[in-house]
Amino acid sequence: MVDWKKIRKDFPIAKRFTYLDHASASPMPKPVYEAALRYYDELVGFADFSWNRWISRREEVRRKVATFIGAEAEEVAFTSSTSHGMNLIAELIADQGGVLTNTLEFPATTVPWIHRRAKMRFLKPANGVIDYAPHLSADGTGTVKTILTSFVQYQNGFRQDLEAIGKIKGNRFLVVNATQGFGYLPIDVKHTGIDFLATNSYKWLMAGYGGGILYINRKWIRKFQPKSAGWRSAPHPESFDNRHAPLKRDASRYEYGCPPFPHIFAIGAAIDYLSEIGFSNVWNRILELTDFLIDNLRKYDFEILSPLSPPFRSAIVVFKVKNAQELTDQLLAKRIYVSARGGGIRVAPHIYNTEADIMNLMKVLRQVMR
Fold first, then answer.
1. Residue 184's domain is classified under what CATH number?
2. Which residue of 23, 27, 132, 362 shows the fewest CB atoms closer than 10 Å?
3. What's the Cα-to-Cα distance from 131 to each of 141, 272, 318, rounded to whole Å?
4. Is the pLDDT of residue 140 over 80?
5. How far from the centroid of its chain's Cα atoms is residue 281's Cα?
6. In angstroms, rounded to a whole number, what is the distance separating the alpha carbons of residues 71 and 190?
7. What CATH number did the domain enclosing 340 receive?
8. DSSP secondary-structure letter at 337?
9. Which helix (H) or strand (E) holds 355?
10. Where a domain ends, among 252, 275, 298?
11. Does residue 49 form part of some domain?
12. Of 71, 39, 70, residue with least CA distance to 55
């Protein structure tokens, strides 16, 4: 059994706020903060004498990330954000053919492709759900080359069945923005047939701003040449060769310059933190909290906009209200953090939240709505 009261002590924010906005950004738990702080302590005390130790630690984190997503370490690169990773992906394959995506996507998913003038087709949701299957089966001419989707949609919390898409994608690329599911939902890039994946560190992973993860299947690393490179894209960067530009044969060639060590170390510490709790425990706790929220929303006749079928569930629950932004601002004034998204209010609890946090939200919400 997990001691959730003990876990809550790792989040000082819980003493001052009812924070239910993890789909926007998460606070950093103290053990993760301490791991990032360790880097700065070493920087102060040893400066570049710590370089080899930092490089070794970076590779440890790379292996942890690979294990977490079912990949190989050579298929993982560190980026600065989801947008950074998605641009690197679009740079490789935006010109390969049509892109099938949907209108629920966050701009970080689609803008890099639009900027490169990819042939985009946007599907509209039906009852909050995006079903790619009919459109792929109807694509007899093979005009769709890339399936572009989020694992979980930020607007309404719809969770995409990546395994189902992987089974029917054929010879198309499956590109996934994993941001809104990464850290609490299991994801296996090989099992689901994902070709490219981008995510960040600051939402559900709770590792703070500035970090990101890029996955590229090994066969595409070999096939596609990057359009950009840096001195650390070389197989032996410490040779300082300024007259030739050979590239590494793994995903780390997309790490152009000196590593953002504190962000990488925070990612590793966050994976350790969640692993110690147990990823099944993390997801079950979030389900308990969202179930409790849904029951209370129904009690007061709020219309829930998020798909509630178990295969589509995530940590995000959106319910309909008028003047969502105004209500969200009023809740913020009462130290309750939620967001106005998808035509209503978006609530996104994490493991340290409690049923009391949910009840406080409901109490204050009813007060401000009066």
1. 3.40.640.10
2. 362
3. 19, 34, 20
4. no
5. 19
6. 7
7. 3.90.1150.10
8. E
9. helix 355-369
10. 275
11. yes
12. 39
- The answer to whether 337 and 19 are in contact (CB under 8 A) is yes
Domain that holds residue 317: 4-20+278-369
Helix, strand, or coil (residue 144): strand
For the chain, how far is it from start to end, CA to CA, in angstroms? 41
Across 206-215, average pLDDT: 98
- C-alpha span between 60 and 73 (Å, rounded): 9
Separation of alpha carbons 108 and 175, rounded Å: 13
Contact yes or no for 214/198 (Cβ under 8 A): yes
Percent of the chain with pLDDT over 70: 100
- Span 265-308, pLDDT tens digits: 999 999 999 999 999 999 999 999 999 999 999 999 999 999 99
Q: H or E segment at 330?
A: helix 324-333
CA distances from 74 to 172, 218, 239 (A): 22, 8, 21
Residue 183, sorted as left (phi over 0), alpha (psi -120 to 50) or beta, turns out to be left
- Per-residue pLDDT reduced to its tens digit, 53-98: 999 999 999 999 999 999 999 999 999 999 999 999 999 999 999 9
| In a shared domain, residues 266 and 199 | yes
Rounded Cα gap, residues 340 and 342, in angstroms: 7
Please, which pLDDT band fits residue 213 given cuts at 50, 70 and 90? very high
Which residues of the chain form beta strands (DSSP E)? Answer: 18-19, 76-79, 98-102, 120-123, 144-150, 173-177, 196-200, 212-216, 317-320, 336-337, 339-341, 344-347
What are 296's two structure tokens? Answer: 């209370």
**3-class DSSP assignment, residue 217:** coil
- The tokens describing 352, both together, are 């340290």
Residues 12 and 41 in one domain: no
Let me know whether 49 and 187 are in one domain: yes
Residues 6+ apart with CB under 8 A from 329: none
Burial 290-306 (b: 16+ CB within 10 A, else e): bebbbebbeeeebebbb
By three-state DSSP, how is residue 346 classified?
Answer: strand
Query: According to the model, what pLDDT value does residue 66 have?
Result: 98
**Structural tokens at position 80:** 């600065």
